[in-house]
Amino acid sequence: MIRTEGLTHINLLVSDIRRAKRFYETVFGLREMFWDGPHLVFLRPPGTEDTITIQQVERAEPGPGNIDHFGFRLVDRAELTLAIEEVVAAGGRLLERGEHAPGQSYAYVTDPDGHVIEL
Predict the structure, then answer these.
(1) Distance between CA 57 and CA 33 in Å, rounded?
(2) How many structural domains is the chain composed of?
(3) E-assigned strands of the chain?
(4) CA–CA separation, 28 vs 86, rounded Å?
(5) For residue 53, what is the domain's CATH number?
(6) Domain for residue 4, yes or no?
(7) What is the domain range of residue 77?
(8) Based on the number of CB atoms within 10 Å of its own CB, is 25 exposed (0-12), middle (13-18) or buried (19 or more)?
(9) Residue 102: pLDDT above 80?
(10) Which of 8, 20, 42, 62 gives 114 a disulfide partner, CB atoms 3.0 to 4.6 angstroms apart?
(11) Residues 22-73 pLDDT 10s
(12) Residue 109: which pLDDT band, with cuts at 50, 70 and 90?
């Protein structure tokens, strides 16, 4: 077994880096850590060591690519409807909403580039 301290980052391929950055800052409160050239930005949710890198490529096709989905844990599950509304208002969309088990609600949404996010 390889010993790790967890994930270092998730890298998302996008067609418009500024639009994607604005989406993740607006909807999830991610903050810019730094830019690595004009087509790669590192973002982090406040108070965490989690990192999402957003990389602009010429031909980013809408959809999840090789990542099926990734998830954000809501502080208050009662705010799921509000979270979905914020995603939609910022250019994403709702794919599915349901319960994994009684009382364990979830929603699958997308960002503007089609990456699937579980809430």
Answers:
(1) 20
(2) 1
(3) 10-14, 31-35, 40-44, 52-56, 70-71, 93-99, 105-110, 116-118
(4) 9
(5) 3.10.180.10
(6) no
(7) 10-118
(8) middle
(9) yes
(10) 62
(11) 999 999 999 999 999 899 999 999 998 899 999 998 875 655 555 778 888 8
(12) very high
2 found inside a domain: no
The two tokens of residue 84 are 């979905």
Query: Residue type for 93, please?
Result: R
How far is residue 81's CA from residue 14's CA, in Å, rounded to a whole number? Answer: 26
In a domain, 3, yes or no: no
- The predicted model scores a pTM of 0.80
Q: Please give the structure tokens belonging to residue 100.
A: 């994994």
Mean pLDDT across 82-110 = 93
Q: What is the pLDDT of residue 72?
A: 87
* Whole-angstrom distance, CA of residue 109 vs CA of residue 88: 8
Tokens of 81: 């409807």
